[in-house]
Amino acid sequence: EVVLTQSPATLSLSPGERATLSCRASQSVGNYLAWYQQKPGQAPRLLIYDASNRATDIPARFSGSGSGTDFTLTINNLEPEDFAVYYCQQRSDWPRTFGQGTKVEVK
Amino acid sequence: QVQLAQSGAEVRRPGASVKVSCKASQYTFTGYDIHWVRQATGQGLEWMGWMNPKSRNTGYAQKFQGRIFMTADTSINTAYLELSGLTSDDTAVYYCARGGLVVRENLDFWGQGTLVTVSS
Fold first, then answer.
1. Residue A46: which of B44, B47, B108 has the nearest Cβ?
2. What percentage of chain A's residues is helix, strand, coil (to nearest 5)?
3. Across the interface, which of B49, B107, B111 has its CB nearest the CB of A46?
4. Residue-level pLDDT at B112
5. Among A34, A41, A54, A25, which Cα is nearest to A84's?
6. Where are the beta strands (DSSP E) in chain B?
7. What chain B residue is nearest to A100 in terms of C-alpha separation?
8. Rounded to a whole number, what is the distance in Å from the CA of A37 to chain B's nearest CA?
9. Which pLDDT tens digit goes with each residue over B12-51?
10. Are the C-beta atoms of A6 and A88 separated by less than 8 Å?
11. Which of A5, A107, B23, B46 is 20 to 30 Å apart from B99, CA to CA?
12. Nearest CA to CA, how far is B13 from chain A (Å)?
């Protein structure tokens, strides 16, 4: 199965800063990668699909890039509500797999 | 607004089975896949499988093969996940999620989660 490795495990930043999250796949997943945000006690929310497409109602400060095995989620100008855990997920191969998550916390 | 309402928390003994429901509303239930994802406390997300309520087609992650069963009752717009042979490793919050219309693995709406606790 495709293993997704996210880094860093934790990112400590202040509101207004830029967050750069990485997701590396153990084999090429093309551009079939999504990003989800999860806040404590809540279900995940789809942010980005197919590497760079924002889902419905997702603010423009969220952007995704990459292809093949290396992907990046960038959050510009962090808002207080952006502090959460972020997961990548691939849909290139079965089973669909998630990364272990990156926590973006307040510095 | 699309909603997926899941059944309440469950407690099971090791070796038992559990069946979690996911009732859909405010969209055409048969037009979208349902996926199931679980999350152990403090851990990451684990994709379990999917089913199409109209065709009844399913796809399960290999690690659950033989003890997972996904069904749907289209008359009441409800999907079900049944997991048997429970162990303590199955203690987790179980989520249902709707697959997207164009990109079927875009999990665009999620249920609130159902906590399943396996304990002797």
1. B108
2. 5, 50, 50
3. B107
4. 97
5. A41
6. 3-6, 10-12, 18-25, 34-39, 45-51, 58-60, 68-73, 78-83, 92-99, 107-110, 114-118
7. B44
8. 11
9. 999 999 999 999 999 999 999 999 999 999 999 999 999 9
10. yes
11. A5
12. 25
Measured distance CA(B73)–CA(B89) in Å, rounded: 28
Beta B45-51 vs B18-25: how paired, if at all? unpaired
Full pLDDT tens readout for chain A, 107 residues = 999 999 999 999 999 999 999 999 999 999 999 999 999 999 999 999 999 999 999 999 999 999 999 999 999 999 999 999 999 999 999 999 999 999 999 99
Q: Which of B19, B40, B47 is nearest to B110 (CA)?
A: B47
Residue whose token pair is 């989520």 = B95
B2–A contact, CB cutoff 8 A: no
Q: What residue in B sits closest to A88 (Cα-Cα)? A: B45
